[in-house]
Structure formats: C-alpha cells, structure tokens
C-alpha cells in the first residue's frame, strides 16, 4: 500500500486512490514499424528489483496520469512528476544517483 | 492429571463461574479463563487429532503460537472452525467441539494412519498420486479433497457485523508487554501520537509471570502503574484484544481487533480491522518458546515450559501432578521453581547442558529439585496422555538409562524472537550464534517512502532476553521511533530493571543429539501438519536443499499456525542434515497475517446491500413496480424482462420480442455510456480511437464505430454522433462507459498531450429511451413537437427538438432492426418522459422490454455484443466487420497489431450464424468438435457458440458462433457436444436471420 504524491493536485494519495499503469516512458510504434520494435513496445517490459519508472493515475482524485520513480526493493520513492514528458526530470535522476550509485534502467542511469 | 489449584490465577475471578461444553460435555471455568486453561482445569488433556496421522494431541502452548488446540466454536450462524483454544476467552455458554476425528475424539478410526506412518513419509502425496494418470481426477482428487482441511466450513450466514477503522498516527507500538509499554511512554514523552495494540486482553505480556523488578516495582505493579499513566496521556491510545496483523508498504499497518468474541452477540461489530498509517512502527511482539524435538514430544501433557508456567500463574491450573522439565537454557528453571512453590511435584530437571545453568539452577536446587545435567528425554511414553519419560544421555543415540513415571513434561528449546512484523515488509534478520536465534538486523530495517527505516524492533522481539536488557532496549527504542517520526526528544529518565544474569543456552535441535532413526520418526517439528525430524532429513536426502523447497515438500510450517513453533527447529535440522550453517540455510518468508484473521473483518461493512454501490437509472423504481426481473450489468441493474400475470420469465421475453417486431416497445437505454469529446482536435483524436473514419462525419449524422486496443482486439462499440464541428458524442456499451472514458483520458494525457481535446462522461446526465417497433413513429407523433418523418429525420441522423413538452435529442439508430428512435432527455425528466410514452403508446399496445428481448432482437439481426462475441482475443475482422475499418487512415489504435501474420491468417475462428438441424437452442458456450484429439487426450475443437437464443420471431433456436474458417464453410453441419450429454448438430449459416436488407429500420 504505497503512498504517492500526485504532482497535479499535491495530494499524498494512498494506493487505493490510484491505478497502476505499468512502465513509464514507452515509445509508441504504430503502422510501418518492424516486428521487433512493435513487439518491444507492446510486450517487453522492465521488471527490475530496484529503480523503476512507473505510470500511475490518480483515479479517485483529480484523474490525472503521472509518473513515479521508485525503488521496487526498498520501496523508496525518488519523486513523482507529470506524465507529459518523455524522459524523467533531471532533479529526480540526481536523487536516484545519490541513493543508488551506478543504477541502470533501460538507457538511463 | 491437570487440575485447578486453590491458589494462583492472577487473571481469573473465582467468584464468577462460567458453564461451557466441550464435545457436549458440561464443564466449568472462571471469568478470565481462556478455553485452553478451562479445559486443562477440567483435566481435558486430549483436545484434538493431528492432520495427517490423527495422533491424539493436547494443549502445548498458551498463546497465539498454539498448533494443536484448534476447535469448532459456536453453533449455527456463529459457528467458526479452527479457533485456537489458547486465545479464545471463555464465556458462559461457550460450546466447543474437537476436530479432525471420526467417530469421536477418544476413538478415531483415522488413527490407523499413525500405524501406517512409515508408509506416509514426506512427499507422500507427490510420490503416491502420480500414476496412473487416469486416476488423477476420479480417484486421487476425491481422496485428497476428503482428507484435506481440519475444521468444517460454516453452513449458515454469519450473524455478526464487522467494520473498518482508518487511523493516521505517528507511532504504532505492536505489543503491550513491558517492552511495548516502556517504548510507548518513551515515544509519547516527545509529544508523538502513539497507538499501542496488544493481542491479548491483558497488559504486560510475560513479565508478570516471569517476575523480576523494574524501577523498584515488581513487574505486575510496574505494568499496572504504567498502563494507568499511559491511559492518562492525551496523545496515547491503548487497545487490548487488537493484534497487529501485518506491516506493509510505507507504514501501512493492519490491526485486528476482536471486539466481542468474548461476549458473543453483544451490540456492535464482532471484529474491527484497523487500517493504520504510521510514521514509525515499534515491533515489541515478544518471543516464542521453541519445543524440543524428542520422541513423543506430541503426547498430550508435553507442553512448552513457559506455557506450563503461564497456566499456573495466570489461571491457577497445574498441567500435571508429577512433572519432568527438559531444557537447554535457564528460563525453564523458572517453570520448575514456580511449580515447586505451588506444591506440584517436580521429579527432575533434565538439562542437556553438561554444566547446567546459573543462578536459577542454584535456586531450583535449593528448593530440593533434582537436576540431571547432560541428560535428555529419550522418549515420552503414553498415548492420550503422558505416562513416563525414558531418560538418556543427551550426547547419545537415546539408549534409556532410566524410566520415570510422570504425567506432564515441560520442555524448552530456547526462545525465538517474534520477527514476523519486522520481516513482513522487507526487514532482514541476523543469526545470533551465542543466543541461538534469528533476530532483527537493525542495519537492514524495513524502509519507508524516504528510504529510511520505518520500524524499530525492541525487547524480546529484538533478541533482548533478560528484563534488564528489555527495559533499557525498549526505552531507547521508543525515543528512536519518536525521533524518526520527526519529534524532538525531551529529557526523560531511563527505565531500569534489576539484573538477573542467565547462563548461556546450548542449541539443541534434536534430542538426544544423535537420536536413532526410530526416535527421529517420532520427534515432531510441526505438530499441526505432522512433520517430524525424519521427514525433514528425508527431504534433504532427496535433494530439497532450499528451505523454501523443503517447506513445500514436507509441509513444514504450512499449517494455520504458519510454523510459529516449528520453523526454526525445522530449518536447523535441515542445516544440520546438509552440513550447512543455519544462517546459510535461512528462513522461509514471513507473510502477513501474523495469525489468521476473519474474512468478516477483511470485508468490513462491505456486504449485502452495501457490498458495492448500486447504480439506478431515473426509471429504476418504475421498472421495479412493473415486474422487472433484474439483471446486473456492471454496477447497474437493468430489467432482464418485465414479468406479467402468470407468465414465467421466458414467456415474458417472447412476448416482449413479438411486441417490438409487430407493435412498439420501450427500452431504458440510460445506462449506455455517453462520452462528450470536444475540441479542435476531436476528429483527429477519434480517428485514432475508432477503426472507422470519424473526422468525416457530418454534424447531424451518426456512425457506428469500433474501438480496439493497441493489441488489435475489439474492446467496445457504439454509435458516434457529431454535434458540431468540434464536438462528438460517443456512445459506449453499458459496462464500457467508465473504462472507455479512462481509455480516452489515458491516450490524451500520456501520448497526445499536445492535442486540443477535452472529454466528459455525461452518462448519468441523461435518461435515454429507445422507442422501437413499426408503430414507434405513431406514438411519438401523437405527442406532437418536432418533425420525426423519414424525410426530416432519416435513419442514422440525430436532431434536437421538442417531443410533447420535453426537450429531447433524438437519434435514429436501431439495435433491433426495427424503426427506432433513441431519445435522450435530462435525467430529471426521465421518469416523466417514460410515463408519458407509456400513456401515449397504450392505444398502440406499447410495452416495456428488457435486456433479454434486446439480445434476441439484436441476435436475429446478427448484431454483435461486446462481451458475447468478443472476449479480448477477437479482432473486428473475425466478426465480419471489415466494413467498419477505414482503409484510408494511416493509423489507429490496433492497426499495427492487426497487421501481424496470425491476425491476418485465414485460419482464425470467424463469426457465422448457427442453425440447429432440429430447431433446438444450442447450449451457450458449447464448443464445436473437430477430428482427432490434442496432447491431453481432449477432442480437438473448431469453434464455439457466442450467442444463443430462442427466436420467437422464427419459432426456433438461433445462434452465432466463432468457427474455424467459418464464412468459407456455409451450409456445412458441425457438432456441439453439450454438457447435458446430448450432441447438437448445427448448420453454418449467415448470422443475419431477420430482414437482411435492413428495410424495416429504414422507414
């Protein structure tokens, strides 16, 4: 039962207010994409024990989608940020590097 | 025999007698008794039978760790199986029954398993029930089901109520023993809000039983004063009978309060689930004594030394008249000393340590108790109660040196900190070799959202085993938690207990140390699941080296007690057999709840009418008053049919269908989703969402559309109406309104966030009524208002206007194939409009119709239904809906997925009509069989029924189904075996069986 702060309305939301939306920062591949790219987009997901970037929706609050950077092993939350970005904000990446030196996640870290 | 003494019993009130029954036998106890103490006071040593071998079993512990004394409690609507007698407070009229035997507890036929024990070793089930494969279903499974489970399930609806509490606090203290209470005060002195939860009905835990002095007070007096002081602090809340059941992410704590188990039927809830958010959790859950693994350690009368002491001090019950104490540590001497002082004969203390103990041993010796060092229990003899102990050298194979008759044995293998809560959310343990225990590793505590520790373990739960150490540790823990919760510490004086040093424990995992095989096969580790030393050793020999594998192979620790007594002994035996160190083998994972909690508490108030919200349309009450047979659709209730007079529901459906086809019917379609999509990019957005081209739709027009997910599968359908250049109204299925609205928002917010589009879910703002049938226009025209002629409002157009006195939006769309007007009015006008239509339609024979008639009507037309023809694996192309997929668009959700080779394969199952050769109705969901069989010996399949109804229009069964290459096989007859033993033959036909050219809806 996580608590994540919604970056839109500022509410520290209990997990029961939220819906999980899987991995963040996926790049969409549509018609014209080769099979490998499309498969990667549709099915291949990171499942790390450690630093992870996730999509969440404040379903029973303001209804907005946001992203959370957190650690799946220690449950530490490095920050939440709006979903309208394709890469995590720099300050959050800095926080993660301080907490988990040498971390990697896809091509981040 | 076990009996009540005239003295002792600090928790009972001898002036308040309580009558109760055990297996129908009348017995008497006192206020303050547990069921276990009352049973022992009545010399009821035998309380149950074990799971596998049906061995006679007695009470072995005095608290939550009890594995044996599980009973069926209560009767009728208050019946509950597997209740622990040790944690069940006695009340007048309590009725308990023993479990797992036939015909009686005293004489149990199942005990034959005990004689077959050598043929029922670890992994028996895996070995025995493998071959032949044909026996799996009809021989082995019924056998295994028959022998599974201990108690019986309740048969009646639970008479009690339950509730949830939501609490936010700074510090939760789990455990109201001396450690918890001291820590609570130390934390509260900083100003932090502190919630102290104790699973038992009384405070102080073991300390008042074990004695000693804290701050110059005897422990019981110290506890009493401290509780009073805490009760007087405004920032402290104390709750007894409330167990902390689990610790979860980010300081989420579940408390399980047994509000009225001890006063059944009292007003208010029976159990209360505390859903707590805490900044810090103090784990002061104490420790659990370990049994010793010697042969016959499960004979009724063999008990944990601490439990025997508890029964005497707390409830004035002596577990026996002549007792032998077996130990490897100093603590068990307290039991011997206490028993001796109460006048119970203590025949012998068998101390496995060659040099024995320290000060406590000296005290016991001064009292005249004989102490044999380096000696062990070789075997306990007796069936339903202890008869004698064969004494042997501990460092031997168990050759008896002497046999001593006795009626009870107290055993102590040392103490294991109750680290469950610490471990639930990731706290790690460290093996303390000196103390022979796993204890919390402070440097690897469970962490919170900030990555910092969210729990502090203290007292015996932290491995502090003397009162002096516990008091100091608890005071420090309370201050540490308060500080971690963000509070400034104030000066406070430390709590000090008198020192009472003890000599070191000597680990004993098997007794005697080199016990011969016959003894090992009678030395129990897990009482409830009947796992012995020999089983764990066999598992190790058969290659189960991981403790998690051994657990599952032997079922060690998998019973309802979750191995509170057995886990550490079991893994130590495993480590010993593997020649590995105990920390290298490690523990199995501790998972919540600490002890089982009731399903009622988990459900709380959410049952019956308030289980989930019920959504009602504005016409709900009218439907109810007119014979509606309700069907749940999502959270809505929709009329399945309106039953009239003496007809049954099927006759009602047939009548409603005929009336729509021949006259006019009224359908409440308010539940259909109505999503408004607005903005300069609305058309572009809908082009991505729907497979069709929506941006070319003209204002005033409607278009049927399909929605797929990125995987290409059909997820929803409905009619889209273009309101103006920038505005669309999208109808969804009843169940899809919220889901599709969320789907739209997800894509808008996370992928196309720069597109200028807003969405709004208007589903509940409008009541919508379908007026359907050849006479529909006549009914509406009678009311006057807008022009509803074919010319003014042709098929697939919509228009705003007035009908009678109602402002309405009329859609010329049809899901039945008949002339149809779907009319939306403000929700507040829904009922009035409905009643007006009923009144106006009377002369035309208007009738309301329900969802089943709707289904029959759409199936006759071959219209698909999301959830019937689709199941998340069906693409529009499978359903012959290629016409609704735009060829002009570069992209839409699902387009790339539908280009994958297997999506384009001609070998997919595709939609066809199915016409039974004898006119009967195909069974729903039936599979069409093909030649041959698959690897599991099942018939190959080539299709399945997706919709099947009796068509009153055609006077025979109609159906649709998905069939392998179906549309290429028109006219072919295929076979559907039903679950009723019959095989149905059906011809593959066109799915549209009524008005194929659509002339009737276009008038």
Q: Could you describe the 3D structure shown?
A:
The complex is a heterodimer of chains A (109) and B (1003). Chain A has 109 residues and is an alpha+beta fold. Chain A has a single domain, classed as 2-Layer Sandwich (Folate-binding fold), CATH 3.30.2270. Chain A contains two helices and six strands; from the N terminus they run βββαβββα. Chain A has a four-stranded antiparallel beta sheet, covered by helices on one side. In chain A, strands 1-2 form a two-stranded antiparallel ribbon. The two termini of chain A are 27 Å apart. By secondary structure, chain B is α+β, with helices and mostly antiparallel strands. Classes of the chains: A alpha+beta (109), B alpha+beta (1003). The A-B interface holds A 1-3, 14-15, 21, 28-33, 35, 38, 42, 55, 57, 59, 63-65, 71, 73-77, 83-84, 99 and B 248-250, 252, 277, 425-426, 447-451, 710-711, 742, 745-746, 749-751, 753, 890-891, 895-897, 899-900.
Could you list some keywords that capture this structure?
heterodimer; A: 109 residues; alpha+beta; Folate-binding fold; 4-stranded antiparallel sheet; two-stranded antiparallel ribbon; 2 helices; 6 strands; 17% helix; B: 1003 residues; Ubiquitin-like (UB roll); FAD/NAD(P)-binding domain; Gyrase A, domain 2; 6-stranded mixed sheet; 27 helices; elongated
């Amino acid at each position: 039962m996580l608590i994540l702060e919604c970056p839109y309305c500022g509410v520290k939301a209990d997990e029961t207010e939220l819906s999980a939306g899987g991995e963040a920062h996926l790049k969409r591949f549509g018609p014209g994409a080769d099979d490998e790219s499309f498969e990667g987009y549709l099915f291949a997901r990171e499942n790390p024990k450690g630093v992870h970037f996730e999509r969440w929706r404040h379903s029973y609050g303001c209804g907005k989608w946001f992203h959370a950077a957190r650690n799946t092993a220690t449950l530490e939350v490095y920050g939440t940020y709006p979903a309208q970005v394709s890469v995590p904000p720099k300050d959050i990446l800095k926080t993660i590097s301080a907490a988990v030196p040498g971390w990697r996640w896809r091509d981040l870290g | 025999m076990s009996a009540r003494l005239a003295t002792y019993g600090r928790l009972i009130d001898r002036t308040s007698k309580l009558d109760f029954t055990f297996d129908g036998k009348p017995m008497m106890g006192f206020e303050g008794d547990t069921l276990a103490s009352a049973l022992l006071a009545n010399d009821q040593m035998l309380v149950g039978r074990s799971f596998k071998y049906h061995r006679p079993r007695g009470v072995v512990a005095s608290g939550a760790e009890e594995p044996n004394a599980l009973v069926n409690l209560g009767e009728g609507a208050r019946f509950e199986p597997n209740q622990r007698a040790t944690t069940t407070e006695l009340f007048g009229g309590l009725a308990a029954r023993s479990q797992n035997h036939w015909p009686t507890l005293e004489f149990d036929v199942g005990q034959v398993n005990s004689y077959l024990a050598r043929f029922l070793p670890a992994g028996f089930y895996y070995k025995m029930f493998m071959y032949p494969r044909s026996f799996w279903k009809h021989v082995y499974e019924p056998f295994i089901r028959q022998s599974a489970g201990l108690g019986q399930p309740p048969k009646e609806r639970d008479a009690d109520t339950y509730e949830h509490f939501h609490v936010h606090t700074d510090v939760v203290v789990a455990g109201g023993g001396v450690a918890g209470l001291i820590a609570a005060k130390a934390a509260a002195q900083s100003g932090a809000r502190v919630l102290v939860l104790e699973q038992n009905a009384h405070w102080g835990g073991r300390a008042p039983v074990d004695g000693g002095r804290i701050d110059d007070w005897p422990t019981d007096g110290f506890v009493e004063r401290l509780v009073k002081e805490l009760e007087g602090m405004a920032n402290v809340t104390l709750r007894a009978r409330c167990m902390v059941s689990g610790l979860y992410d980010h300081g989420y704590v579940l408390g399980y309060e047994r509000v009225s188990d001890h006063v059944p039927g009292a007003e208010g809830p029976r159990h209360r689930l505390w859903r707590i958010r805490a900044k810090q959790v103090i784990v002061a859950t104490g420790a659990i004594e370990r049994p010793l693994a010697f042969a016959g350690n499960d004979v009724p009368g063999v008990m944990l030394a601490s439990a025997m002491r508890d029964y005497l001090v707390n409830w004035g019950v002596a577990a026996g008249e002549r007792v032998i104490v077996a130990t490897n540590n100093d603590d068990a001497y307290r039991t011997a000393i206490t028993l001796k002082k109460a006048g119970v004969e203590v025949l012998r203390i068998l101390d496995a340590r060659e040099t024995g103990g320290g000060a406590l041993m000296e005290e016991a010796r001064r009292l005249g108790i004989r102490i044999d060092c380096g000696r062990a229990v070789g075997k306990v003899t007796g069936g339903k109660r202890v008869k004698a102990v064969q004494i042997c050298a501990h460092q031997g194979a168990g050759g008896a040196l002497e046999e001593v008759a006795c009626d009870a044995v107290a055993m102590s293998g040392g103490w294991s900190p109750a680290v469950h809560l610490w471990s639930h959310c990731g706290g790690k343990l460290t093996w303390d070799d000196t103390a022979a225990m796993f204890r919390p590793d402070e440097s690897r505590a469970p962490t919170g959202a900030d990555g910092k520790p969210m729990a502090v373990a203290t007292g015996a739960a932290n491995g502090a085993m003397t009162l002096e150490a516990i008091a100091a540790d608890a005071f420090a823990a309370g201050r540490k938690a308060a500080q971690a919760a963000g509070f400034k510490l104030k000066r406070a004086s430390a709590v000090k207990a008198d020192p009472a040093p003890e000599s070191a424990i000597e680990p004993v995992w098997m007794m005697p140390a080199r016990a011969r095989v016959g003894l090992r096969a009678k030395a129990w580790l897990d009482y409830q699941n009947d796992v012995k030393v020999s089983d764990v050793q066999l598992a190790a020999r058969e290659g189960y080296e991981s403790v998690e594998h051994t657990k599952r192979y032997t079922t060690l620790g998998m019973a309802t007690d979750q191995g509170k007594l057995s886990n550490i002994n079991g893994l130590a035996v495993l480590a010993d057999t593997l020649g590995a160190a105990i920390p290298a083998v490690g523990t199995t994972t501790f998972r919540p709840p600490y002890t089982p909690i009731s399903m009622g508490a988990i459900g709380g108030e959410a049952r019956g009418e308030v289980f989930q919200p019920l959504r009602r349309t504005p016409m709900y009450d009218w439907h109810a008053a007119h014979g509606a047979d309700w069907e749940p659709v999502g959270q809505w209730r929709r009329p399945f049919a309106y039953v009239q007079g003496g007809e049954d529901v099927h006759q009602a459906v047939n009548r409603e269908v005929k009336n729509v086809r021949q006259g006019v019917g009224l359908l409440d379609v308010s539940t259909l989703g109505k999503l408004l999509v607005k903005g300069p990019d609305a058309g572009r957005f809908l082009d991505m969402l729907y497979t069709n081209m929506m941006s070319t739709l003209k204002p005033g027009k409607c278009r049927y559309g399909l929605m797929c997910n990125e995987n290409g599968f059909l997820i929803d359908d409905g009619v889209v109406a273009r309101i103006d250049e920038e505005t669309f109204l999208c109808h969804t299925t009843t169940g899809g309104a919220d889901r599709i609205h969320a789907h739209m928002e997800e894509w808008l917010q996370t992928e196309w966030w720069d597109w200028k589009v807003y969405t709004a879910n208007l589903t509940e703002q409008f009541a919508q009524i379908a007026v359907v049938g050849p006479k529909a226009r006549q009914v509406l025209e009678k009311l006057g208002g807008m022009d509803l002629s074919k010319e003014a409002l042709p098929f697939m157009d919509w228009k705003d206007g007035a009908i009678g006195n109602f402002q309405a939006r009329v859609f010329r769309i049809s899901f039945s194939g008949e002339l149809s007007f779907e009319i939306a009015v403000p929700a507040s006008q829904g009922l009035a409009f409905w009643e007006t239509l009923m009144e106006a339609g009377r002369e035309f024979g208007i009738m309301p119709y329900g969802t089943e008639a709707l289904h029959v009507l759409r199936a006759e037309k071959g219209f698909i239904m999301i959830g019937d023809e689709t199941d998340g694996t069906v693409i529009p192309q499978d359903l012959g809906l290629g016409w609704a997929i735009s060829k002009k668009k570069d992209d839409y959700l699902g387009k790339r997925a539908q280009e994958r080779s297997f999506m384009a394969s001609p070998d997919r199952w595709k939609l066809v009509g199915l016409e039974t050769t004898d006119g009967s109705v195909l069974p729903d969901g039936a599979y069409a069989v093909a030649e041959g069989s698959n690897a599991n010996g099942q018939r190959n399949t080539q299709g399945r029924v997706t919709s099947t109804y009796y068509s009153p229009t055609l006077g025979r069964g109609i159906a649709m189904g998905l069939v392998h290459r179906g549309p290429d096989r028109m006219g072919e007859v295929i076979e559907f075996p039903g679950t009723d033993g019959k095989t149905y033959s059906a011809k593959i036909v066109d799915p549209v069986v009524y008005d194929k050219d659509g002339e009737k809806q276009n008038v």
